[in-house]
Design brief:
Distance between the termini: 46 Å
Structural class: alpha+beta
Keywords: Cell outer membrane, Membrane, Signal, Transmembrane
Protein name: BamA/TamA family outer membrane protein
Number of helices: 12
Subcellular location: Membrane
Pfam families: Omp85
Number of strands: 29
Radius of gyration: 34 Å
């Protein structure tokens, strides 16, 4: 008989509020689990049987290895043992003297059998009083002070899991008070029903007999030893000791300055032992980025201390990463505008530049791309050169001194960035840019991250433009204006809540909100223009003025083993004012690509219902807007081992809400008018959404993901109204990317 599973029926004569929870717990002991089913079939069982044949074949053997399941028979089911387990769980939940029976149902025709378990629940025992035994030991007073916050409440049902939780809660509390050697096994509950005849009981909490004396006294930190350059096997007799801020820094040479390391260490001489302080210290030291391993251990010190206090020696062992490294990358690049070519990048890193945990990263890159197709635009080539430097200080660089303890969870990092980029597109233009930034990054807790960049400067210079490119700009004032704003200086702020770190939760949330404000400070410095209609400038450079904000919302619903529904909503808007009629080109939004609407190539969707063609002179340039709306949904499931699958749908687009104003007597060309009208955001924007569906495969090896997505457009806003639903599954778009899209 093939075992097809078990059912559980509960009969009770009293009202039980959490009966579904009790039933769910009882169902966990209904073992063994039957063979899995899919749409009424048992594929695991099917391929197991196939593999038992004399010549099963390679495919059957392979599928049996991956998804095969040995059959579960009725003879494998131990009903008596399962009944005992059900009774045990019921007693743990206060239902003493309950009865459990079982019935086997066999189907001779199909050779299948199931089991029905029926439990008659007795009236549960309810708590009348909960108290702590009286004793003169100091530890009893500590427990008594914490008892009002107990989850054990008068009137609750006898509940063994809650009592275990109470022991662990008290243990954590006492550990935080310095009771280094305490553990929850030293606590015992006693239930007394002798005072009542109506299924009530009193609950008493006390220490077990023969608890070691050292377990019921608090411990203080007598000494803190820090090994900032620890290597296993070093002879401590050959190390020097530097005393700083009541800590001993033991080393063979100065690797990390004690002054810079001390703020990360929260363990202080004279403090009571605390596992939370120890864990926070370990986390903060690990966040520096200069250490491979952080290990904190405690040793008890024999002393003449009284019986009411113990002493500990804290040892902090820090094993550094290699200080210097060089990494070279060779990339093969292909783009949606048919440009392709190689890129070489070389990165030099120094993880402890000034012996204070500073991380210097310098990257130089050179790339060459040529347009291998594209009609009249074929043959264009691009040379790109870049130098990017980042210097991160693992501390707050601020003109006013701020106490490091003000940031409880982590110490902010200061990041300074400077980069130079040069791009030459043959026969069209040369573009040079300089980017500089100064900002702060810090974690408020394990979920929330703040990033503030009070100084952000970007300067671009468009030179050596060809007559052909000049004509393109002349034909498209929107594109021309976006290139005119060459000087951008402002402030950015980003808030991130990342609930995805709790990988085992059923419901996971992610929120990112970013603000980018440019030009206000420069406007004050520049003063008033002589002529109001003239744009303001600083040192002869016209600067951009705008406000831009976007929000990224994500929700993951985990409902099975490695199965989830992942969703995302994105909305972004930029408003240009003052000097600027439109957002600078590098600040505009675009849509399409492997991290956006996957059924459309990168930057090829929109704005609005605009449809590009070769005669526009913009077909191989980016199509952007100052407003972006997107929504995505994806079902992710395992295929086997490291290979995952997905089915998804994407929808979104970009639009323009600010269009260049016309000079007096000026008229737009036919192309300009079409671009303006089709790209403008209006009330019927839903009809201008690009929509696509697709399937994907992901190679997920220890969170390193290589992603392959195949997406087909279903709704193309570039087509005439009434013809936009196309269901073009015969011309899918292939996307290759690293990491999940959201």
């Amino acid at each position: 008989m093939l075992y097809t599973g078990a059912e559980l029926e509960l009969d009770t004569t009293s009202q039980i509020d959490d009966l579904p929870e009790v039933k769910s717990e009882l169902q966990e002991v209904l073992l063994p689990s039957p063979n899995s089913e899919f749409l009424g079939m048992r594929p695991g069982l099917y391929f197991y049987y196939k593999a038992q044949r004399e010549k099963p074949g390679f495919i059957n053997k392979f599928l049996n290895k991956k998804i095969g399941e040995e059959p579960v028979y009725l003879s494998d089911v131990e009903t008596v043992n399962t009944q005992d387990l059900i009774l045990n769980r019921l007693e743990n939940r206060g239902f003493f003297y309950s009865t459990v029976g079982s019935q086997v149902n066999e189907d001779e025709e199909s050779k299948e059998a199931s089991v029905l378990y029926r439990a008659e629940l007795s009236q549960p025992y309810l708590l009348e009083n909960y108290r702590l035994d009286n004793d003169s030991l100091i530890v009893y007073k500590e427990i008594q002070d914490y008892l009002p916050e107990s989850p054990v409440e008068d009137g609750m049902r006898f509940d063994l899991p809650v009592m275990k939780l109470e022991r662990e809660r008290i243990d954590n509390y006492l550990k935080g008070k310095g009771y280094y050697n305490f553990n929850p096994g030293f606590l015992i509950f006693e239930a007394d029903t002798n005072q009542y005849d109506n299924k009530k009981f009193d609950l008493f909490l006390k220490l077990k007999k023969d608890v070691p004396p050292k377990a019921i006294i608090p411990y203080r930190i007598a000494e803190v030893n820090v090994y900032p350059n620890y290597t296993v096997g070093n002879d401590s007799l050959q190390l020097d000791t530097v005393h700083f801020e009541n800590k001993n820094y033991i080393r063979d040479e100065e690797f990390f300055k004690p002054k810079r390391l001390d703020p990360y260490i929260l363990i202080d001489e004279g403090d009571f032992y605390s596992p939370d302080v120890s864990g926070n210290t370990s986390r903060r030291l690990g966040s520096i980025g200069a250490y491979k391993f952080v290990n904190i251990s405690y040793d008890e010190i024999d002393s003449t201390a009284t019986d009411s206090l113990g002493l500990l020696e804290a040892n902090i062992y820090l094993s550094p990463l290699n200080k210097r490294s060089i990494r070279a990358e060779i990339q093969a690049v292909t783009k949606s505008n048919n440009f392709a070519g190689p890129t070489l990048a070389v990165t030099y890193s120094n993880r402890n530049l000034f012996k204070g945990g500073e991380i210097l990263s310098v990257t130089g890159k050179v790339g060459y791309e040529t347009q291998i197709a594209g009609g009249d635009n074929a043959g264009l080539s691009t040379l790109q050169l870049g130098l990017n430097t980042d210097l991160i200080f693992p501390r707050l660089l601020f003109p006013i001194s701020i106490d490091d303890n003000w940031f409880d969870y982590s110490i902010p990092k200061t990041k300074i960035g400077l980069s130079f980029d040069y791009m030459n597109r043959t026969n069209l233009f040369t573009l040079g840019s300089v980017l500089a930034s100064f900002g702060y990054l810090w974690d408020a807790n394990r979920y929330i991250t703040h990033e503030l960049t009070p100084i952000s400067i970007a300067y671009t210079k468009l030179t050596d433009t060809s007559p052909e490119f000049d004509q393109i700009l002349e034909d498209n004032p929107f594109l021309q204006s976006s290139f005119e704003q060459q000087f951008i200086a402002g402030i950015t702020y980003s808030f991130t809540y990342n609930g995805m770190v709790d990988t085992n939760k059923t419901h996971q949330f992610f929120i990112n909100n970013t603000w980018d404000i440019a030009g206000n400070t420069l406007n004050l410095l520049s003063g008033s223009s002589t002529e109001e209609e003239e744009p303001k400038a600083l040192f002869g450079q016209e600067f951009a003025q705008y406000v831009k904000s976007d929000i990224d919302l994500r929700y993951h619903f985990n409902f099975g083993e490695e199965q989830k529904i992942a969703t995302r909503l994105f909305a972004g808007y930029g408003y240009a004012y003052g000097n600027s009629e439109v957002l600078p080109f590098i600040k505009q939004y675009y849509s399409g690509g492997p991290y956006s609407i996957r059924a459309f190539r990168t930057r090829s969707l929109g704005p609005g219902s605009y449809s590009a063609n070769e005669d526009d002179g913009i077909s191989f340039f980016d199509r952007t807007g100052n407003l972006r709306l997107e929504g995505n949904i994806e079902y992710r499931f395992p295929v086997f081992q490291f290979l995952k699958g997905a089915v998804f749908a994407d929808a979104g687009n970009v639009w323009n809400t600010q269009i260049n104003s016309l000079e007096e007597g000026e008229e737009r060309t036919e192309f300009q008018q079409e671009y303006v009208e089709s790209g403008e955001f209006e009330s019927d924007f839903i009809s201008e959404l690009g929509i696509g569906v697709g399937v994907g495969l992901r190679v997920d090896i220890q969170s390193f993901v290589i992603r392959f997505d195949l997406a087909a457009p279903m709704h193309d806003p570039a087509l005439p109204e009434g013809e936009r639903w196309i269901y073009d599954f015969g011309s899918p778009v292939f996307n290759f990317a690293i990491g999940y899209p959201f």
